[in-house]
Amino acid sequence: MKTLTAADAGERQPAALSGLDMQAMSAVMPQGEPGPRNLDDESIYAIAHHLYAQARYEEASSVFGFLVSRNSLERRFVFALAACFQMLGQHTLAIQNYLVAAALDPDDPVAIFQSCECLIALGRVAEAREGLAMVSERCLPVRHDAVRKKTQGLMALMDQFSKSEKPGRTQ
Of 21, 24, 68, 151, which residue is most buried, by most CB within 10 angstroms? Predict the structure, then answer.
């Protein structure tokens, strides 16, 4: 199977790929590869993941965006792009991409949970509460225990916060 390059796909390669420091490239690039233009999606994903792990979210979002443009049905790429947007404080873009990721894998409630965090950051608490209720319903025993616990904790925190905001209540 031939690996498509950015030129083959008619796409412009992100600056983060062409300008990536050699240390980052050597950490994830297969030996013998002449450069980032010839990398397959998995190698490019590894580069983007490395950037994300280094908190280089702007660069990572550029690379994940490139991957999404090459394969918009790969949930990991869309989810990772959403995570970059969330870390950059671009919550509306994050929500849009998390919802696409959720549609690509309706059995995994993590993308909806993450979109609820973004809704809270935007002050859209009522919508977040509805989303968290949906997450609770979708959590399967054992498989989604971590997400279920986070959801329950976040809902409890929201309940506590809303009680403390009621008029006439003193603490």
Answer: 151
